[in-house]
Design brief:
five-stranded mixed sheet; binds zinc ion; alpha/beta; 7 helices
Length: 247
Amino acid sequence: MGVPSLACPCRVCHSSDPHDNRTRPSVLLSRDGHRVVIDTTPDFRFQALREKIDRLDAVVLTHPHADHILGFDDIRPFNLRQKSAMPVYASAETLAVLKRTFAYAFSDEPAVSTVPQVVLHVIDGPFELLGVRWQPVPAEHGEMKVLGFRVGGMAYLTDFSRVPPQSKLMLQELDDLIIDALRDEPHPMHQTVAQALALVSELRPRRAWFTHIAHDLPHQETNERLQREGYENVHLAYDGLSFEVRA
Ligand SMILES: [Zn+2]
Ligand SMILES: [Zn+2]
Ligand SMILES: [Zn+2]
């Protein structure tokens, strides 16, 4: 829902620490002036303005929940500037929901105004973007199948409650593992902090970053707690966080 969450009186939603301001989860990978975004959240336009994104080469989607796709229409300015359709990579299931949700963009009727121009790519195995290999990493988000992605030394897995053993094999020897850690209270579709820490202990990445964080977790306090519990290499991610990734 983002933090602050609408109409919430809690102390995290009213925190003065900018790290407690959380737009919906998304990451951008850049290489040699080219950029790929994973998920177009309802905050996509704001995030792209904030990060001064003046070019976008592809969109990759993890799953079709509203908080991951509803900013999709805002790829139009990139269509116009770049004079090209946007490549969109996702599972067949995710593309089916995208087509239903943004039916006007996939209609055969002539559009009176601009609509997103896209070229769809069904992910059914590793693919290449930014000149590097993208390994899809299947996971389970409650009953829903979702995709995480490993790119070089980094893996991004938002929104999941379980990583099957086959996928864990794809997550060895990582520099940076970015994973779902919603809150402490159990949730049927997301990991808790304790479950996320157990996964970090199992996969032993050099660093781990928690994402998809609800308003239950104050940024600084939670980071201090992780340090106290001996997880020096684990931190809550935050809006605007940026680091180099080994290709
Ligand atoms: Zn709140
Ligand atoms: Zn989701
Ligand atoms: Zn989500």
